[in-house]
């Protein structure tokens, strides 16, 4: 059974690459998609495509709307949405993406360390799984696709 997985959230570590590589190594038939992870490109896309904005609010507004097209499409087309919350920054966008996935009725896997358990309790409650490591996400996806348990 082929799956489509959208990898949302924190962009400052290589967690996406770990999941993609782990699933590839496990021989899983998964198509991955993600937001633009180049922070500068993501921030500036609206102004670069639609025209410069001297007011930072409107600069960010244009970029957020263009990114929302990609994000909404990725979440809507996904069978499973994985949302990673990192340690360094408060990721309001990640929380929004998790809420959008839940609202669309998508299978949601939340990925974060134990230090965020309390802050993310409502997000975790909406998820079908809460993992602490990318390796656990690979094991979840392996189980979902093949029914095989970790060795």
Description:
The chain has 151 residues and is α/β, with parallel strands linked by helices. It has a domain at 3-35 and 78-146: Rossmann fold (3-Layer(aba) Sandwich). It contains six helices and five strands. The protein has a five-stranded parallel beta sheet, sandwiched between helices. Helix 1 (15-25) packs parallel to helix 6 and helix 2 (39-50) crosses helix 3 (56-77). The radius of gyration is 16 Å and the shape is globular. The chain starts with a strand and ends in a 5-residue tail after the last helix.
Uncertain regions spanning at least 5 consecutive residues: none
Instruction: Give the spatial strand order of the biggest sheet.
Output: 2-1-3-4-5
Percent strand equals 15-25%
Structural class: alpha/beta
Give the overall shape.
globular
In DSSP terms (H or I, runs of 4 or more residues), the helix count works out at: 6
CATH topology of the domain at 3-35 and 78-146: Rossmann fold
Radius of gyration from the alpha-carbon trace, in angstroms: 16 Å
Keywords, please?
50% helix; 6 helices; 5 strands; alpha/beta; Rossmann fold; 151 residues; five-stranded parallel beta sheet
Write the layout of secondary structure elements.
Layout: E1 3-9, H1 15-25, E2 30-33, H2 39-50, H3 56-77, E3 80-84, H4 92-103, E4 107-111, H5 121-126, E5 129-131, H6 134-146
Parallel strand pairs: 1-2, 1-3, 3-4, 4-5
């Amino acid at each position: 059974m082929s799956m489509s997985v959208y990898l949302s959230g924190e962009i400052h570590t290589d967690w996406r690459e770990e999941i993609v590589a782990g699933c590839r190594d496990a021989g899983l038939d998964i198509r991955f998609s993600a937001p633009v992870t180049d922070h500068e490109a993501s921030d500036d896309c609206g102004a670069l495509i639609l025209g410069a904005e001297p007011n930072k609010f409107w600069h960010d507004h244009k970029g957020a709307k263009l990114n929302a097209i990609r994000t909404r499409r990725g979440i809507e087309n996904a069978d499973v949405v994985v949302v990673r919350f990192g340690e360094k920054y408060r990721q309001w966008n990640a929380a929004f993406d998790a809420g959008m996935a839940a609202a669309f009725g998508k299978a949601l896997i939340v990925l974060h360390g134990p230090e965020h358990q309390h802050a993310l309790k409502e997000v975790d409650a909406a998820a079908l799984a809460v993992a602490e490591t990318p390796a656990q996400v690979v094991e979840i996806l392996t189980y979902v696709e093949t029914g095989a348990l970790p060795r």
